[in-house]
Amino acid sequence: MLENKYFIYQPNFFEGSIVSYEALLRFKNSDESPLHFISTIEDKENFDKAVISQVLSDKLSLKNPKNINLSINIFAQSLVSESFIEYCESVFQKHKGFTLELNFNHQQFDLEKIRLNMQCLKNLGVLFTLDDYGTECVNSDPLLDLNFDYIKIDRSLISTISDDYLSFCFLRSLYHKLNKFLGNTVIIKGIENVNQLNLINSFDSVIAQGCHLSYPLPLSALDDNLDTQAEQSLNKVNSENPPIDRFIYNINIAKNEAELAAALELFKPQDPFNLLGIDYNNFDLDALNRKYQELLDGIKSPSILFTTNLMKHCNCLFILRDEQGVAIYNSKKHVDYLECDLVGMSPDDVLARFPDYQMCLQLDQQLLNNDSDILMSNETVEVGSQTTHFHTYRQKIKYFDKTFIMIFVYEDTQDTQTSIDPLTGSFTKSKLECLDINTYKSLVFIDLDGFKNINDKLGHQLGDLQLKEAARLLKQYLRKEDLLIRFGGDEFVLCFNSYSVEDIHAKMLVIRSHFERYFEEKDMYLSFSFGTALIHTDVKEALDLADQLMYTEKSLKI
């Protein structure tokens, strides 16, 4: 059936690279179009078998056939034939990297049988494309339920988009329907000039085909293009994971209370934060449709698109959490910093990976329990071996009956560059100038006892080593949310988020006992005197009080 005929191969491009080739029939020694010949074929099943056999033979003749993906056009009615399916199974069990393209040409078929047979071949790795969607398939929405891997939009919808804005708008709306709402991977064919290509590229994720990108190639050229071929990617939202649009559709077509209740129950997981503001106890269909339309209108709003992109790419780390501490959104910079997308993760899962996250959640709760809508704080975060200091700004927002926290996080470059003591690794005195009194409720002023004697007898070099050890020991008994500040010389300040002076005093006695024992084992006497004070409104006032109490304790030792 293919005597005096051969195949050429039209490349499909994604992001500038070839992802596959479509096999196109041609006559030897003739420029005649094959369309008339194909329309006259009566034994369509055997013709399709011959085409598959020839394209397979072409592929196997290549140097690296496993790395080449080929697309083959077949008649839709062949998929109704059990003998054709058996033939395909015998071929595609052994040979991979094939897509079958179907064009239904306004004909009626047993779609359920085709769906089942398609699934049998899908299980073997065969992919499927619905061809000429939008013209030949103008009434083909039921065909979308066959779960095609690709939808190819007809070239007639492309030809005028660079000359007519309404044609472009129609094509764009069709693309959004297929890709954004139904989750299909879209192929647009017939791209003939650079203006058409630029407009198509504005759609983002699309596979492109056309003479502007490449004319059909002879079989021998496929080996030459191997280095440019990229892996095929699917943007699938299949029947097991339909888009939110489908759930709202099911709610609208519910025929009775039972169907409505079932549709709403299925919808709940799709909007876990109830951003559509549904009152499930007193459901209002008009309110749901109105709110959903507002969301759809937002897709077309330049200001909303700009705001969304601004949050995604802003120069700070941005995250939005609900009252339970679950992240609803985090910016690209936030994801890159943590090397993890927190959206949807439970707080327990996040804490298991990032223990410092506990302080973030505590500050969220502090704002939620406060009459104020804004909270500013300074936070220290450890990711791997890297410690980073941040200025953080929280804002509380209401949406229907829910409260959310917007957090803007800026790296404290001053802390990381100038406010860390190089000897002890603790903060320098300047840290007290920007201490967040919403976070830290008390401080302890420490002065080392016996350090001057070590310095005088053993020298400054050994004295510095003991000072470094002293700071290490103090850090060892502190929590990650506590602060250690080298105030100057052999003086330190500890900052805590506790209101209890008694608890802090008891903790310091335990630390001092371990501290003294450690240096006794090194045949050295080194201890410290301390004073504790609450931070009310003025850090300096608390610091002066703690300093006085420290000197009072030190004087009792003399």
Automatic annotation (TrEMBL):
Taxonomy, superkingdom: Bacteria
GO molecular function: cyclic-guanylate-specific phosphodiesterase activity
Domain EAL: 1-230
SMART domains: EAL, GGDEF
InterPro entries documented for this protein: Cyclic-di-GMP_PDE-like, EAL_dom, EAL_sf, GGDEF_dom, Nucleotide_cyclase, Rev_trsase/Diguanyl_cyclase
A Pfam family it matches: GGDEF
Residues covered by the GGDEF domain: 439-558
PANTHER family cross-referenced by the UniProt entry: CYCLIC DI-GMP PHOSPHODIESTERASE PDED-RELATED (PTHR33121:SF79), CYCLIC DI-GMP PHOSPHODIESTERASE PDEF (PTHR33121)
Protein name: Signaling protein
